[in-house]
């Protein structure tokens, strides 16, 4: 038996706006520890004799930051598959199964990238038990013992005991998120568990069920893999083929229709970090039930979640209030109505506002840039280039740039000239001049860039050469 962890990292995390945004979602953020949720998920099943390097399925726009975050926790050779479009979990898992060899000996462990499970030994023990049943052909999921009648989770109703002595039960049905009274009945019955969203099954068994239940989806996934192409360390699925897949979760597409599917009850702490109330539940509270992060001064407040990333927040006389501050957005809400954050995100998207998609700090494969100031005809940015990072060789039709080195060493290409610049040195790139910025050193390079011109949009870039193979 070979265990293949499959990490699904395609979600947008809109209920955690303004920290989580579609361009940099919650799984890429450090919300529960000093590691991001993606990093915590990847470390949960470390590669070994039986466990393979993780396979991560993610959005193409996030491929470089996903690879970098995995490298930071010691995972040097993950298999990263790029989805051309979001199609929920059933097609993504089909792709993972098709890429697994040998399919009749590979047990897939499907892990959402945005869950919090602090008890890793208990989690690994549960995976071992479920993998044993999956190796025999059973499709398994984990059911979390509910600690409360939670209305934010889906539920699983369990049936009779499965064969064997590992405590697994037959899976009777999935239930959508209930209202409070229904959730209380579920918990009181003892037959229901929270739906963890994690699954364990053999690759060939899943493909066989998909062929029976969703043959068109499986055909589209086969074509997407066969017509895919390798791009550096990433596998790009064929967009036309994958786009024909139905947008279905594995629950609806397969698990609800399998007669011998099983659920393994687990008691370890689990949270899907679905919104700000979840982080309030997980956070370290003061004597009045407040979770305060950042530079916060609080007077006579209770049961509040206040998170400040960049400035002082002073709060007086509040109860059950959510405050989340980022450089370009401030969220203030009744914590019991935090679900409505999705409506704010939808409004921003309809208006075409950048706050829905991106932060002020924009990550690139070479590092990041952050806008410090801007007005008509000028913009000031802070640029960080990581060691050995290299921007594309490019030019602009509508703007000139002035670079001032703050720290580190810069290798600057300007037309036919190539020069090394250190702190407090600068260079000017005129409009229409081909140029490139590189970091040949061992420490991060920081540069202040002043742009001036009639148009300063990011689409005013003509790329001549790019080591990251981005379109130009």
What does this entry look like structurally?
The chain has 472 residues and is an alpha/beta fold. The chain contains eleven helices and 28 strands. It has helices at 37-44, 63-72, 89-98, 120-135, 180-189, 203-213, 215-226, 239-243, 250-253, 276-282, 341-350; strands spanning 2-9, 55-59, 79-83, 106-112, 140-144, 155-161, 169-175, 192-202, 229-231, 234-236, 262-266, 291-293, 296-299, 305-308, 313-316, 321-326, 329-334, 361-364, 367-375, 378-385, 393-395, 399-407, 410-414, 417-421, 426-429, 435-438, 445-453, 462-465. The strands form six sheets. Strands 18-19-20-27-22-25 form a six-stranded antiparallel β-sheet, with no helix packed on it. A hairpin with a 2-residue loop joins β23 (410-414) and β24. The model has no long low-confidence stretch (mean pLDDT 94).
Comma- or semicolon-separated keywords:
472 residues, alpha/beta, six-stranded antiparallel sheet, five-stranded mixed barrel, 33% strand
Task: Calculate the mean pLDDT score and round it.
Answer: 94
Helix content: 10-25%
Give the CA-based shape: globular
Main sheet attributes: strand count, strand direction, barrel closure: 6 strands, antiparallel
Low-confidence stretches are none
What is the percentage of strand-forming residues?
A: 25-35%
Structural class estimated from helices and strands: alpha/beta
Q: Number of helical segments?
A: 11
Number of strands: 28
Task: Report the radius of gyration as a whole number of Å.
Answer: 25 Å
How far from one another are the termini?
A: 45 Å
């Amino acid at each position: 038996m070979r265990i293949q962890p499959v990490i699904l990292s395609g979600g947008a995390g809109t209920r955690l706006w303004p920290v989580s945004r579609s361009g940099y979602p919650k799984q890429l953020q450090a919300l529960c520890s000093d590691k991001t949720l993606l990093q915590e998920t990847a470390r949960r099943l470390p590669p070994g004799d039986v466990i393979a390097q993780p396979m991560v399925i993610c959005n193409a726009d996030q491929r470089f930051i996903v690879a970098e975050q995995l490298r930071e926790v010691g995972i040097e050779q993950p298999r990263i598959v790029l989805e051309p479009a979001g199609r929920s979990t059933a097609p993504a898992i089909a792709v993972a199964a098709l890429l697994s060899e040998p399919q009749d000996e590979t047990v897939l462990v499907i892990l959402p990238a945005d869950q919090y499970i602090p008890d890793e030994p208990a989690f690994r023990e549960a995976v071992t038990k479920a993998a044993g049943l999956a190796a025999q052909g059973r499709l398994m999921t984990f059911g979390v013992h509910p600690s409360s009648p939670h209305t934010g989770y889906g539920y699983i109703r369990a049936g009779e005991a499965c064969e064997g002595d590992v405590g697994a039960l037959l899976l009777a049905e999935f239930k959508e998120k209930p209202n409070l009274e229904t959730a209380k009945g579920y918990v009181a019955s003892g037959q229901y568990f929270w739906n963890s969203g994690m699954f364990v099954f053999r690759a060939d068994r899943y493909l066989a069920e998909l062929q029976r239940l969703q043959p068109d989806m499986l055909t589209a996934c086969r074509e997407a893999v066969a017509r895919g192409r390798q791009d550096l360390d990433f596998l790009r699925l064929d967009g036309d083929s994958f786009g024909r897949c139905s947008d279905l979760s594995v629950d609806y597409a397969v698990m609800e229709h399998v007669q011998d599917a099983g659920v393994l009850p687990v008691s370890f702490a689990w949270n899907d970090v679905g919104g700000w109330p979840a982080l309030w539940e997980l956070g370290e509270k003061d004597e009045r039930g407040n979770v305060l992060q950042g530079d916060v001064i609080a007077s006579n407040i209770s049961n509040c979640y206040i998170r400040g990333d960049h400035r002082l927040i002073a709060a007086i006389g509040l109860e059950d209030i959510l405050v989340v501050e980022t450089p370009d957005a401030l969220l203030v809400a009744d914590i019991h109505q935090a679900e409505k954050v999705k409506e704010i995100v939808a409004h921003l998207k309809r208006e075409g506002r950048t706050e829905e998609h991106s932060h002020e700090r924009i990550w690139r494969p070479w590092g990041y840039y952050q806008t410090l100031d801007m007005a008509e005809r000028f913009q000031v940015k802070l640029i960080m280039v990581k060691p050995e990072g290299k921007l594309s060789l490019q030019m602009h039709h509508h703007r000139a740039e002035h670079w001032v080195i703050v720290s580190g060493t810069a290798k600057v290409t300007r037309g036919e000239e190539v020069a090394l610049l250190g702190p407090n040195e600068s260079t000017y790139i005129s409009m229409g001049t081909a140029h490139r910025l590189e970091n040949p050193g061992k420490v991060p390079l920081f540069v202040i860039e002043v742009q001036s011109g009639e148009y300063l949009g990011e689409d005013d870039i003509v790329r001549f050469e790019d080591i990251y193979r981005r379109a130009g």
